[in-house]
Amino acid sequence: MKKFAHDFKVVGNNPLNARHFVLELQAPVPLPEILPGQFVQVLVHNSPSTFLRRPFSVHFADYSKNTLSLLVQIKGEGTRHMGMLKTGDTLNLVYPLGNSFSAPSSGKVLLVGGGAGVAPLMIMGDYLNRKNIRPDFLVGFRSADEVSQMDQYARYGKVYLSTDDGSMGEKGFVTQHPVFATSPLPYDRICCCGPDAMMHAVAKLAAAKGVACEVSLENFMACGYGVCLCCITQTDTGNERVCIEGPVFETSRLKW
Amino acid sequence: MQFKNPVTTASGCFGYGEEFKDFYDLGLLGGIFVKAVTGSNRPGNKYPRMAETASGMLNSVGLQNKGVDNFCKVIYPKIKDFNTQIIVNVSGSTIEEYVMVAERINELENIPAIELNISCPNVKEGGMAFGVVPSTATEVTRAVRGVYKKVLMVKLSPNVTSICEMAKAVVDGGADVLTLINTLLGMAVDAETRRPVISTITGGLSGPAIKPVALRMVWQVFKAVDVPIVGLGGIMNTTDAIEFMLAGASVIQVGTANFIDPMVAPKIAEGINEYLDRHNIASARDIVGALKVC
Q1: CB B22 within 8 A of CB A225
Q2: Residues of chain A neighbouring B261 (CB-CB closer than 8 A)
Q3: Consecutive 10-residue runs of chain A (256 residues): their mean pLDDT?
Q4: What is residue A48's predicted lDDT score, i.e. its pLDDT?
Q5: Could you give the angle at which helices B134-147 and B95-106 cross, rounded to 10 degrees?
């Protein structure tokens, strides 16, 4: 797949809460199709401490506005700088990178996300809707003050919510949600993105219940396009690059 | 051998070139130094292999590759007709392994040169161990020279007391060209977790952080030996490339910068032409080693 490096224009920077915001970026050329699960490499700032690009899952692509959105959690200097970007600023992106979640032609799909890991669920929901599949969403956050965009997910499918402290939705981790209580699970496929511990727990549950499961990994990487070999994960066929063979992997293939 | 321009890409920073076909025409490059090839399959080191550092990065990939047999049968047919010079970086754990790989690569018609990697800091055996003691550097170079009939380049490690002594040692062993420098041995610590950031604890530092060290070594070696130099170490833009050429590099390699801007190498090639025009200099050759020191 052809890849590009372009300066995008910031057309929106919308805080979701104290730690998360959504950057809306307009491409200088017609956007190629962005598949759900694909990511971009952002050149944050030419400072000594933010030397490398930062990878972000695409949150949403709006071809009518020629924009793509990134859901960003403020973690360090790079993401803090991104949070301060204003309309009209530019940001250099290498895109589109990596593989994507598989889209079944039919069947029930559960999309599971936690924290900033919910990012690719929105574009996946949109993608599935265009294939006439209405997925269920199960999203988990630390507490009510981090819950956001529920109405937007609801446009694409039914939404279930967990918070760690029980301040909104079901109390506990996503794997403790009643959605996972039934046996067999009413799903043909689970797609998951979130903290490592959450993805491990979801993968284990899915395996126990015999449901196919994909996760989107977030390994540290330098390039994002397959040459530095820093982001590898162990699979049943040896070390694979999260940036090329991933970031989405069938959990049955992972030795993690 | 001739390069159409002095800009090439560094081993380990450009895969086998194929990944960059998605970005630009590889014919814009002077050459490509492909990822290190060893005698047999190496899975490489455990994750995490990378740490971002001030103006640079540490890596510890550990020469992950599928071995020389796979290179010759699977990779070579895909890259042999690229419209640029393809040079294979050769590594190993023993002298016998270096010799075996070099012999196999010698048979590949469209590979005009190898770059002997005696400077990888990220493997337990071999690699840098051969490149920090002059006598062993001479020995491995001489052994490979015995079987390799084309241009033999040797990539030197900066992790030595005297880079000139190492340069002389490999020229004595039969090196035609010297590449310098490989990464500087470094380390990163996570204060919060109190753990090393990368799995091997230490790794190779690259990026603009090492540029002054690399420039100094290119200059010292340029004055000390009479073979062409391929210079690298933190080259991010045209100005950096020109500086290396002034210090004595005939050809430069772009390494870590490929991770920041995938289009950077052809931009530098274009920038060098603009520099030469602006200074009314006929050829890039004319600035090699042209540093003005009273």
Answers
A1: yes
A2: 5, 43
A3: 94 96 98 97 85 97 98 94 96 98 89 96 97 96 96 98 97 96 93 96 96 96 97 96 98 95
A4: 79
A5: 30
Position A46 scores a pLDDT of: 63
Indicate the helix (H) or strand (E) that contains B265.
helix B264-278
CATH superfamily of A4-97: Translation factors (2.40.30.10)
Strand partners of residue B85: B31
Given a cut of 90, whether residue B138 has pLDDT beyond it is yes
Report chain A residues whose CB lies below 8 A from the CB of B20.
225, 227
Phi, psi of A210 (to 5 degrees): 70, 30
Q: What is the pLDDT of residues B78-92, one digit of tens each?
A: 999 999 999 999 999
* Cα first-last separation, chain A: 28
CB-based contact (8 Å) between A44 and chain B?
no
3-state secondary structure of B94: coil
In order of their start, the domains of chain B are 7-287 (3.20.20.70)
Chain B CB contacts of A234 under 8 Å are 47
The amino acid present at A201, given as its one-letter code, is A
Residue A6 neighbours by CB distance under 10 Å: 16
pLDDT at A256: 87
Inter-chain CB proximity A48 and B55 less than 8 Å: yes
Q: Is the pLDDT of residue B195 over 90?
A: yes
Structure confidence at residue B293 (pLDDT): 92
| Contact yes or no for B22/B100 (Cβ under 8 A) | no
Name the strand (E) or helix (H) holding B56. strand B56-59
Whether residues B15 and A230 touch (CB distance < 8 A) is answered with no
**Per-domain boundaries in chain A:** 4-97, 109-216
Smallest Cα–Cα separation from A52: which of B54, B203, B192, B264? B54
- ipTM of this model? 0.94
Q: Which residue has better confidence, B119 or B34?
A: B34
Beta bridge partners of residue A240, listed in sequence order? A233
Whether B120 sits among the annotated catalytic residues: the reply is: yes
Indicate the pLDDT class of residue B149, thresholds 50, 70 and 90.
very high
CB-CB under 8 Å, B259 with A53: yes
Instruction: Compute the nearest-CA separation of A221 from chain B (Å).
Output: 7
Q: How confident is the model at residue B280 (pLDDT cuts 50, 70, 90)?
A: very high
List the one residue out of A57, A62, A50, A59 whose CA is nearest residue A16: A59
> Is 3.40.50.80 the CATH number for A109-216?
yes
pLDDT at B119: 87
**pTM listed for this prediction:** 0.95
